[in-house]
Design brief:
Elements (H helix, E strand, L loop, with lengths): L1 H9 L3 H6 L22 E3 L20 E2 L5 H4 L5 H17 L4 E3 L22 H16 L4 E7 L12 E3 L2 H8 L1 H10 L3 E4 L3 E2 L2 E2 L4 H11 L5 E4 L7 H7 L13 H11 L4 H19 L1 H4 L8 H15 L1 E5 L12 E4 L17 E2 L5 H5 L6 E3 L12 H12 L3 E7 L18 H13 L3 E6 L14 E4 L7 H9 L32 E3 L8 H7 L16 E8 L3 E3 L4 E9 L5 E11 L12 E10 L4 E8 L5 E4 L4 E4 L2 E8 L5 E10 L14 H5 L4 H11 L42 H13 L1
Parallel strand pairs: 1-3, 2-12, 3-4, 4-6, 5-7, 5-17, 6-9, 11-13, 11-14, 14-15, 15-16, 19-27
Antiparallel strand pairs: 7-8, 10-16, 18-20, 20-23, 21-22, 21-26, 24-25, 26-27
Helix pairs in contact: 1-11, 4-5, 5-7, 13-17, 15-16
């Protein structure tokens, strides 16, 4: 194919080649009809297609109807790779019918703060989970011959000043937190395109960063597709093209950047070979996803009802039961049940912005409940103005709750609280809703709260209610999924893909999330989400990975294939999981890895998610789960060697129900096979010398030269008079030796030569 593409490029004029590097309009690439090069369409689509009429701008034109599936904030809580593939495949089918060749998704930006207005489009605070979900979604979409666009690359973690902000991140944090999800999706699934972000990273626009777009994305990760700009995310077009930004979207008015590209070639500012390579890459994607091969795929009609049923299934598999005191859920169909809250009849099921889908249908929980029983209903609040208490609606709701055996309140964030384009300024729910929940709970102790929100909220009433169901934003069939869980048709099995803190100020980025003017410093480093909360041992509302079921699970019999491995080996972990309850259920088994003890050589989180699996168990049934861990499970990014490195240490394998509920543990010693260059100096502590290959031999020679310090290899003992004022011998440095014993009269240089001979040779 490459030879044919090169021949095709050679037949193109300079203007045609330059023109191919930008869109025809808002959604399509340019065709070259004389050479048989087709145009292809791309649309938004992380959780459903948003296809609008083509043209220079979107205007107010509505998008075509499509299935609105649960956004990433909810689907990630499924921890289900196969389910995400199924979701992607369904969106791929709808894209095929609409002749959309590239779906603009998924988004894998890390949830650094609950404030990000676009968090509902992103999977998780954890890079491993985000990468796994993204890779599965891409596999599903592209299995249908439809391309995807992995976004927004990179470090686009806020909406405030997103066009101009500069995310300043140290290299280790970038590699361990903000790039791994992109890397996983690229290496495992090869998305057709990667979308570069609006923001700058360490002073350089993402659209102009050769390091991001070429060195890392292509040279390190082996990306084979094209880089497309986020819509309007181009600063200097020629610089961007040289850096590795092939396609600018959307098409722009004259004079366009195409002219600047052609002029740069003519003037010698840019070699034509750079342009040719970009065009060849674009053509490869155009023909792969929009050429003759794609046209042979039969166009079929969408089974709207089947896709709605899938949306309902995904939502039900993902919603998280946070709390279920006294087992009030599932509801007794014979009880007097009251539904309270306007969101029961006007659900909030998706976020606002470019991902907003025009759904085929919307099922409310009020309608879905009719499949099970009759319920009474009270509005409780007006979503449009629920910041204040509506006394009339409030009183009616309390009266309705008092007359019921059990009541369910539907509450959460109104659509204007969170959307693409701006960030939240707080983590609170509307005060009218908070007060309503408190009042209803006081009137009826059997109160269930169902939350509709795209990001965490503070829950000042959590101690007042026995049951909380986190429904997040559930797509067009969310009402049906909620009813299925409330009435027990579906046993909840979702787990939180993010930590729910007690209050906003607990978040590690709280003091500097918005930054100063256009600069945002990621001062919390690697301590994002549970890595921070758990390492700090901070109380949270609900931890990462938490989620209850209508049954219970017992973990036992953890086994390791070895307790002593090298970093080149693969460790197999097995354990038994048993359903100890009375109903069938699914359990998400999470595997975390962390150092056994804190070490002054490396700042590390208490634990990190390294794998997970979801299993289905009948009552009394036991299944064995198996995990295989390689070097990546134990490594950190070592900036000294610019590579991933395993520190020789003892690590704890933790099988868990959540990041805070560790069920089984086992220790493994991992020995590094990579020597990190390290030169001891006269100011290197004895503690660090002891850790070097020839360190103990050197310290023995020190002890021989200085009999008063014969036990210099031992741990400090303040009762040992030989240490005198130097009881903390591990912190002793060699240059101090010249102040005593046979080294008196020597220089620090003399000691350094001695150390070079013994340690650094």
């Amino acid at each position: 194919m490459s030879k044919e593409l090169k021949e095709l490029v050679s037949k193109m004029t300079l203007e045609e080649k330059a023109g191919l590097c930008s869109g025809l309009n808002f959604w399509e690439t340019k065709p070259v009809e004389r050479l048989g090069i087709p145009k292809i369409m791309m649309t938004d689509g992380p959780h459903g297609l948003r296809k609008v009429a083509t043209g220079p701008s979107t205007g107010d034109r509505p998008s075509r109807e499509a299935t609105c599936y649960p956004p990433a904030v909810l689907s990630a809580c499924s921890f289900d790779r196969d389910l995400l593939k199924e979701l992607g495949a369904a969106i791929g089918d709808e894209a095929e019918v609409e002749n959309v060749r590239i779906v603009l998704g998924p988004g894998v930006n890390i949830k650094r703060s609950p404030l990000c207005g676009r968090n509902f489009e992103y999977f998780s605070e954890d890079p491993y989970l985000a990468g796994e979900m993204a890779s599965s979604f891409i596999d599903g979409v592209q299995s249908k011959g439809i391309g995807t666009s992995l976004k927004h690359y990179a470090a686009n973690n806020q909406e405030t000043r997103r066009w101009s902000s500069d995310s300043q991140i140290d290299e280790r944090t970038l590699r361990e937190i903000y790039l791994p999800a992109f890397r996983k999706a690229v290496e495992e699934s090869q998305p057709a395109t990667v979308m570069c972000a609006y923001n700058r990273l360490n002073g350089e626009y993402a659209s102009e960063s050769a390091r991001l777009l070429t060195e890392i994305l292509r040279n390190e990760w082996g990306f084979e597709g094209i880089v497309v700009s986020d819509w309007g995310a181009v600063n200097e077009r020629v610089k961007g093209l040289i850096a590795g930004l092939e396609l600018e979207m959307p098409g722009v008015a004259e004079p366009s950047n195409d002219e600047y590209i052609a002029a740069a070639v003519r003037s010698g500012e840019m070699k034509e070979e750079v342009l040719d390579l970009a065009v060849e890459r674009i053509l490869r994607i155009v023909f792969k996803y929009g050429g003759d091969d794609a046209k042979t795929v039969p166009v079929k009609e969408i089974d709207v009802n089947a896709h709605d049923a899938l949306s309902r299934k995904i939502a039900a598999e993902s919603m998280v039961l946070l709390k279920n005191d006294k087992n009030i859920l599932p509801l007794d169909k014979k009880a007097k049940i009251a539904f309270i809250g306007e969101m029961a009849e006007k659900p909030r099921y998706q976020g606002a912005g470019s991902s907003q889908v025009n759904p085929f249908m919307v099922t409310t929980v009020l309608d879905a409940a009719k499949e099970y029983t009759d319920v009474t209903y009270a509005q409780g609040y007006n979503t449009a103005d629920c910041d204040e208490i509506n006394e009339t609606l409030h009183a009616q709701a309390v009266k309705t709750a008092s007359a019921a055996d059990v009541c369910v309140i539907f509450a959460g964030l109104p659509h204007h609280y969170e959307a693409e384009g701006y960030d939240r300024t707080h983590m609170r729910m509307p005060e009218g809703q908070n007060q309503l929940i408190k009042a209803v709970a006081a009137a009826n102790p059997k109160t269930v709260v169902v939350l509709h929100n795209g990001s965490p909220v503070e829950m000042p009433w959590s101690g007042d209610v026995p049951c909380i169901l986190e429904a997040y934003l559930g797509g067009q069939a969310s009402g049906g999924a909620i009813a299925d869980i409330l009435f027990g048709k579906t046993n909840p099995c979702g787990k939180l893909a993010e930590t729910l803190p007690i209050k906003l100020s607990d978040n590690p980025s709280y003091l500097y999330y918005f930054g100063e003017r256009d600069v945002t410093e990621y001062r919390e480093g690697i301590f994002v989400g549970y890595r921070y909360y758990d390492t700090k041992e901070m109380e949270v509302r609900f931890p990462f990975g938490h989620g209850l079921s209508y049954t219970t699970f017992e973990y036992s019999n953890i086994k390791l294939s070895s307790t002593d491995i090298k970093d080149t080996d693969t460790l197999t972990v097995t354990a038994d999981i048993k359903n100890t309850g009375k109903v069938a259920g699914k359990e998400i088994v999470q595997l975390y890895v962390g150092p056994k003890e804190k070490d002054d050589r490396l700042i590390q989180a208490d634990k990190q998610l390294r794998d997970f699996t979801k299993i289905s168990l009948q009552p009394g049934e036991t299944k064995q789960v198996t995990f295989k861990l390689g070097k990546a499970a134990f490594s950190y990014y070592n900036v000294q060697i610019s590579d991933w490195h395993v520190q020789t240490d003892t690590y704890v394998i933790k099988l868990a129900r959540s990041s805070r509920d560790i069920a089984q543990t086992a220790d493994v010693k991992v020995t590094s096979t990579v020597d990190v260059p390290y030169r001891a100096t006269a100011n290197t502590t004895f503690r660090d010398i002891r850790r070097m290959k020839r360190g103990n031999d050197f310290l023995k020679e020190v002890a021989e030269k200085f009999p008063a310090y014969h036990n210099i290899n031992d741990e400090p003992d303040e009762n040992n008079s030989n240490y005198g004022h130097l009881r903390c011998v591990p912190e002793f440095v060699p240059r101090q030796l010249r102040l005593m014993g046979t080294m008196q009269g020597t220089t620090t240089d003399d000691i350094q030569k001695w150390m070079d001979e013994k340690l650094n040779g």
